[in-house]
Fold this protein.
Amino acid sequence: MLLMQTEVAEVAEPHQAGRGGSSTMPQKRNPIACEYILAQARGVHALVPQMLAAMAQDLERGTGPWQAEPLALGQAFLLAHGALSQALVIAEGLTVDAARMRRNLESTGGLIVAEQVMMGLAPALGRGEAHHVVNHACDRALAEGIPLATALMAEPKVAASLAPPAVAALTDPSNYLGSTQAFIDRVLARQAPSPRPE
């Protein structure tokens, strides 16, 4: 839902004519499926205290508390089913704007990957000193409105430790994906058809 905001606009749920429109703003596409999911999830959250209260029993579950469980459980399943149905709609038709994602990342001038730079400098300078140097470069980049890579190369300790191409690589968000590829591979492996038994 938040990624559909005009200021972010990186992904959008599938658009259907007449769904999610605004009565006053014709250009608007409201995240209807997301709203349903969030509302239904909150409905399930509201049932949790009822289930917890049903846990307090006297003797051998002979009186009232347990009778509250089926009242809550059925509603929870119904709400969860509704949320999953809307999640499927989103998953099957999600619109991804990779160019907008890149522009949003680049809008920070490299500051968003300051941690990557710090960790890249840590072997040469030590983690504490790398943090201090990168923090100083970030302050300079913000104050002067320059890219982080430029501010870093103005730092003598960085210039002595890393060549400009290495600094450029460290300030490129596409090089800071962590375990993303492992997660993608894991999901795709689950989707691969299982071999049929001989």
DSSP finds nine helices and two strands in the chain.
